[in-house]
């Protein structure tokens, strides 16, 4: 095989590798964009458990107080003192 032919083969391989790199970079960029979009969606999505606790925290506090044998009347006084 002549030197020119070897150079041509190597150039073809380099072009093939460059094309593969471009494809992988494009793929990685697309995956990165998709992950960013998913993170935004997850941040914006409301958590039903957090919403439930936020809406019902007083009832949960009373339930816990009863469960551990605490003084519910004292807890209610605390709620009133804090104007809740």
What does the model show?
The protein has helices at 3-44, 48-67, 72-81. The model has no long low-confidence stretch (mean pLDDT 89). The relative contact order is 0.05. It has 84 residues and is mainly α. 86% of the residues lie in helices and 0% in strands. Helix 2 packs across helix 3 (72-81).
Produce a short descriptive summary.
Helices cover 86% and strands 0% of the residues. With 84 residues, it is an all-alpha fold.
Along the chain, the helix and strand elements come as HHH
Look at the helices and sheets and give the structural class: mainly alpha
Mean pLDDT: 89
How much strand? Answer: under 5%
Distance separating the two termini: 89 Å
Tell me about the largest β-sheet: none
Envelope shape: rod-shaped
Helix content: over 70%
Q: What's the helix count?
A: 3
Supply Rg.
Answer: 32 Å
Tally the beta strands. Answer: 0
- Low-confidence segments: none
Defining key terms:
single chain; 84 residues; 3 helices; 0% strand; rod-shaped
Q: Can you lay out the helices and strands and say which pair or pack?
A:
Layout: H1 3-44, H2 48-67, H3 72-81
């Amino acid at each position: 095989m002549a030197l020119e032919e070897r150079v041509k083969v190597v150039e073809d391989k380099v072009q093939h590798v460059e094309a593969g790199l471009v494809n992988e970079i494009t793929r990685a960029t697309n995956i990165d964009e998709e992950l960013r979009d998913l993170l935004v969606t997850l941040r914006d999505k409301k958590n039903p458990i957090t919403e439930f606790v936020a809406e019902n925290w007083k009832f949960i506090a009373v339930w816990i107080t009863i469960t551990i044998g605490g003084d519910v009347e004292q807890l209610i006084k605390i709620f009133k003192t804090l104007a809740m």
